[in-house]
Design a protein that fits this description.
Mean pLDDT: 91
Number of helices: 14
Shape: globular
Strand content: 5-15%
Distance between the termini: 21 Å
Largest sheet: 7 strands, parallel
Radius of gyration: 18 Å
Strand order of the largest sheet: 1-2-3-4-5-6-7
Structural class: alpha/beta
């Protein structure tokens, strides 16, 4: 989102993914990473969120897979370059993005994709992406904005034997297959995380992201009220929250699509200190990691640091 605010055009197939797919925009990606680091960010995430099969098949039908993996490698390289230029190798961890495999905020489309493509194809995508990111120099693998625990389990299974810590972040709305937000079901996600850790996953963090701060807080409080925050901490799993700073009313009514999405409308009350105030509430509800998702800027991160 920050790259789009800095001049990368929105694309009907890739949304903001032209920042990665077109080399002329790579300097904007590096500059964006650097601005967050200079604002005090302790982690940055590679910019390959849109490098998922459903998007690249539409954008590049003739060579989508080769293009996708090439761009994933570029995302790692650009993040490493930005950190090096800030001389922040010892202070900043790079999170390698493992995105949803089919669209965003659409558990219904994920289930259709899984039935159509099969688990083996999904596992291959996540494993190949993870290996490319690790070869490119990322420090942590991040399953980002996943549609639920079924998709998260695919990530866990795909990277189980890779030598890297794992963060899992679920879309904080916890939408049902009918696209109804159900953040109060977060204790079930926490139980899944505990079971995954017990089964050998290198899971260090369970997060909720890209939802309104109200939904994220509801999810965290449900986990704490169920007595699961202490169990997660004892198992070595921290909690995290990254709110979407946009107006969510349109998304509540429809599913997300790169072709039909409305232009992003930020919520003024989530700027600057307003954003930081919500992060303090997340901390009080058990989160150790706080940061920004769509609509946050280096200004908000500076407020936190």
């Amino acid at each position: 989102r920050w790259c789009m605010m800095k001049g990368v055009p929105q694309d009907k197939f890739l949304w903001g993914g032209r920042a990665l797919a077109e080399e002329r925009y790579h300097p904007i990606v590096v500059e964006a990473h650097m601005e967050y680091i200079q604002a005090g960010a302790r982690t940055i995430t590679t910019s390959n969120y849109q490098a998922q099969p459903s998007y690249y098949r539409r954008a590049f039908p003739d060579d989508w897979e080769a293009r996708m993996y090439k761009d994933i490698a570029a995302a790692a390289r650009l993040a490493v370059e930005a950190r090096a230029r800030c001389k922040a190798e010892s202070a900043v961890r790079i999170l390698g993005c493992l995105p949803p495999i089919c669209e965003t905020f659409r558990p219904d489309l994920f289930e259709e994709f899984l039935q159509r493509e099969g688990a083996d194809g999904c596992l291959e995508f996540y494993r190949s992406t993870a290996k490319i990111l690790l070869d490119g120099g990322v420090d942590v693998l991040l399953g980002e904005t996943l549609n639920g625990t079924r998709e998260a389990q695919l990530v866990v299974d795909a990277v189980r034997d890779l030598p890297a810590p794992l963060f899992i972040s679920i879309n904080g709305q916890l939408r049902s297959l009918d696209l109804v937000p159900e953040p109060w079901l977060a204790p079930g996600v926490a139980e899944w995380a505990l079971a995954a850790k017990a089964a050998g996953a290198r899971l260090e963090l369970l997060g909720f992201n890209c939802a309104s701060p109200e939904h994220l807080l509801a999810a965290l409080e449900a986990i704490t009220d169920a007595g699961l925050a202490e169990r997660l901490h004892a198992a070595g799993i921290q909690l995290g929250a990254w709110p979407n700073c946009g107006n969510r009313e349109d998304l509540e009514k429809t599913g997300w699509s790169t072709e039909t999405s409305v232009l992003f409308r930020p919520r003024p009350e989530l700027r600057g200190s307003g954003f930081a105030g919500w992060c303090h509430r997340f901390r009080a509800a058990g989160a150790s990691y706080c940061g920004g998702c769509c609509g946050s800027t280096p200004t908000e991160i500076r407020e936190l640091s």
